Write a sequence for this structure.
């Protein structure tokens, strides 16, 4: 097991829609390292393109919160329906030291496959819904900062450029 480098904002792979997983073994070969990387970086989710792999899968674990959920591997995820609305502060391992309150649907119905090849349609809500929506966005080339209003986004433009150039912003910011 090993910690992998996390790809940062500015790398083109994070702006691409990932390819569907057809060979599940490719996922199984990577998930242990992805979980290690996510735990080491204190993240709650990690998308495959964040470790430079162009495939549609993610690992998620929010078990350190008060929500009783274990680690999950989610493959070829697709949001079928969403409803409600909630505001929550988000951060991202690919956009270090920048956090912002983002409005997203509260509940999603997700179609996906697990690491055993089983297909699911499952409702998610609360924190797990939020983390999954953030990772589904990654897998389609979207960052949480894309949801900021132009006025708020302008406050982080310089820092995003710094991350793209050096991997870290000169200062952190919470919006
Ligand atoms: Zn992220």
């Amino acid at each position: 097991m090993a910690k992998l480098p996390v790809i940062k904002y500015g790398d083109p792979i994070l702006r691409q829609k990932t390819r569907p997983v057809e060979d599940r073994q490719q996922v199984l070969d990577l998930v242990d390292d992805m979980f290690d990387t996510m735990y080491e970086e204190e993240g709650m989710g990690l998308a495959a393109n964040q470790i430079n792999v162009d495939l549609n899968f993610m690992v998620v674990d929010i078990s350190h919160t008060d929500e009783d959920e274990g680690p999950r591997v989610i493959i070829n995820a697709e949001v079928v329906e969403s409803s409600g609305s909630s505001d929550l502060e988000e951060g991202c391992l690919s956009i270090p030291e920048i956090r912002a309150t983002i409005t997203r649907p509260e509940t999603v119905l997700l179609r996906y496959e697990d690491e055993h090849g089983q297909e699911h349609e499952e409702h998610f809500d609360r924190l797990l819904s939020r983390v999954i929506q953030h990772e589904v966005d990654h897998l389609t080339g979207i960052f949480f900062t894309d949801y900021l209003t132009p006025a708020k986004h302008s406050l982080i433009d310089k820092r995003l450029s710094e991350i793209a150039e050096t991997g870290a912003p000169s200062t952190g910011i919470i919006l």
The chain has three helices and eight strands. The two ends are 36 Å apart (CA to CA). Residues 92-94, 134, 138 surround zinc ion (CB under 6 Å).
